[in-house]
Amino acid sequence: MKYAFVLFTSLLAGSCSPGYQHSMPLAPTAAPAAIRIEALSLFDTTRRRPVPVLLYGPVTGRRRLALLSHGYGGHNSDYSFLARQLGAHGYLVASIQHELPTDEPIATAGNLRETRRPNWARGVQNMLFVRQQLQQLYPRLDTGHLLLLGHSNGGDMAVLFAHEHPALVDKLISLDHRRMPLPRVRQPRILTIRSSDQLADPGVLPGPEEQKGLGISIVQLPATLHNDMWDGATKAQQQEITAAIAAFLRR
User: Which positions make up the signal peptide (predicted)?
Assistant: First the structure.
């Protein structure tokens, strides 16, 4: 499948071919000095679809790639505290804008595991597209050991990706996804962080014996709601989420 992009704002001056336009980093004061934020305006010519991306970098050495997927109705700028954390752990983080104003609304009726599947599948295509584009732009970037992180509907997208492309995924982190069953595997390594107010559908989460046997981590947050898991969370909530992720990454 062939892809193309029409506008790129580079992480490193001179890092892309002549003819692409450069711009200054977005909101440079919003992140620690070690983390730069850049915008990519990508266009998938096969699907005739824009795929906006925020990159948390910079690209230095052989960094691994993390793909971050927002919850439904959200934006790729809504999870900067998580993107900065992963950037500090050595990842180049691509936060992808999945929904566009022209997209049809997400399904709200029927068997949601089936009726929402086209939305998740589109998200998987977005992730594959972004991975391929970054692989071309940065040959030293490690795109074969992905970390996937997604909240809610974006978590369902990430889980579907792990089912369909397990060889590409090293780690999977979901924030309170509810519909797509987690893979019952030891690899990729899996962490899911759960809210206090939303339950996953039956069969989505493994039972205690499966968790233990496969090394899947489930962290329950008793003081955090489903809709708290973004930049609007309190500092205490953000610290609890990032502590769970840091412990997972250190394992």
Answer: none
